[in-house]
Amino acid sequence: MSQTATALPARDEIQSEYKWQIEDIYASEQLWRADFAKVKSAIPTVANYKGTLAQSPATLAACLQLRDEINILAGKLFAYARLQRDENSANAKYQALVGKTESLLAETGAAAAFIKPEILAMPAAVLATYRQDQALAEYSFYFDNLIRQKQHILSPGEEEILARSVEITQAAETAFNMLAHADMTFPEIKGEDGKILTLSEGRYRALIMSADRRVRKDAFTGLFGAYHAFRNTFAATLSGCVKKNIFYARTRKYNTTLESSLADDNIAVGVYDNLLTTVNNNLAPLHRYIDLKKKALKLDKLHMYDLYTPLAPAVTFTVTYQEGQKLVQDSLAPLGPEYTGILQQGLTSGWIDVYENKGKQSGAYCWGVYGVHPFVLLNYNDRLEDVSTLAHEMGHAIHSYYSQATQPYATSQYTIFTAEVASTTNEILLNDFLLKTTKDPRKKLYLINQYLEMVRATVYRQTMFAEFEKLIYDQAENGETLTADLLEELWHALNVKYYGPAIVIDPEIDIEWARIPHFYANFYVYQYVTGFSAATTLAEQMLTKSDGAQERYLNFLKSGGSDYPLTILKNAGVDMFTPQPVELTLNKFANMLDELEKTITNS
Ligand SMILES: [Zn+2]
């Protein structure tokens, strides 16, 4: 418990069984240097293919294979430097190796930049004939995906202008970041202990959950007051970003910005619309949750600043790493013996860097290294959320393991759209397992609250964000100006609709859109909802042992980037064109509300 109170251990004080094995990438720096030299000398060879790709299928295949070989090596080189830098960011040696590798990656990228446009410039009939050649078989999906977007690629001269415009069109987003993260100041409020503290975004997240209503109200009023003072500037930066995206979408001949944003992953606009419609048709459970919260907190009126207050007092679960591993293994048993076998291998074969040490990168991630194995960085600190993180990151790791073991390099990389499905499925299975096996009513109530908050924040809130994005792009594409008044009006109405009659939508909340950085990554957040709903559906199929579910799931993990994400998911048994995945998720949410109601009345 007191790990934070005592000084962090130095890296060499940590036992080697809790550290990842970098030597699996390169046994020595000498070997790293040898590969570095090899990549460096291959760069001119790639560049020499320029202008020759249409000569023969063999030439085209040789060039693509060389590019892949270079990328595989470059991936190993970068991982070796970067992972060791993350072990201790104060280590100047690996900082230098990271920098060196980044320059090399930029060089290889530049040398290979001609490949895509040159393939696209080939007459369609020639390329079609070439594709019959066995040597190009593994690039079949690569070609499909390339050709699919051909109509949106402009002439070389126009492309050059667009490429140069990026630096200028970033201005609105840069201004947003400067204002929100550097120039803006927040007021002082009295904390829980009565001492004065200066608000910040980081502190707000803890303060808004305070059991002391005065504290959360002050934090709420203080934070949104600060944003309100710059409402016109924030409207201008968001509007500038929206206009930028409309400009690129129209220039690239898309019907709408939404269509252009979804095009990279070949996601149909219908999937986005279906998501909004389905959540809108299922707002009743959220309204009921808000109402239950009001009752549980014994408040006459629930305000926006009461929304994040936990229904259950915080319970400390202390889970050692050994116990955490066991929990993850037991909870993932529904995925079958093959999956848990690989999990066991991952837990015991130097994939994971478990504990925090002086200078180590914070947070958690998974890093797949093609031809080696995945690496997982953790900062395990014996809390329940650390167990969730382990389950989540191992989901990514085993996804990488399967994709890289099954797919050639060309189709081994999965998209973000499917990545979070593999990790979230594990989290959901862990959560279900804990709910089933936890007897202590206080702990159980805590877990239910956690689950409900997760669905509220991931499914409902992110869909509200997605709907807001759709609304503002519709307005802007129809020639409306996105003023602060208009943005506030739209945001307010969405809050009224989503949270329902049991809560007062305080006017302070109307400016909330101004603080959401994701609105500058256009039409991104809906993926949280699709990912969570797909994962819930897959976990459900595993738990109910539906026919062939395990095999379909493993095939999903093995697919990597060999097809479009929606097709891969459909083959796994999740059809994102239908309302079912979201409905199933929100039904589960409603069932959990029944649990909550029982638990509250029994306690
Ligand atoms: Zn993740």
From TrEMBL:
Residues 118-186 form the Oligopeptidase F N-terminal domain. Its cofactor is Zn(2+). The keyword Protease applies. GO terms for molecular function: metal ion binding; metalloendopeptidase activity. InterPro entries: OligopepF_N_dom (IPR013647), OligoPept_F_C (IPR042088), Pept_M3A_M3B (IPR045090), Pept_M3A_M3B_dom (IPR001567), Peptidase_M3B (IPR004438). It is an enzyme of class 3 (hydrolase). Pfam families: Peptidase_M3 (PF01432), Peptidase_M3_N (PF08439). One of its GO terms (biological process) is proteolysis. Keywords: Hydrolase, Metal-binding, Metalloprotease, Protease, Zinc. Residues 208-583 form the Peptidase M3A/M3B catalytic domain. Binds 1 zinc ion. Its EC number is 3.4.24.-. Belongs to the peptidase M3B family. Has oligopeptidase activity and degrades a variety of small bioactive peptides. This is Oligopeptidase F. It comes from Sporomusa termitida. The gene is pepF1.
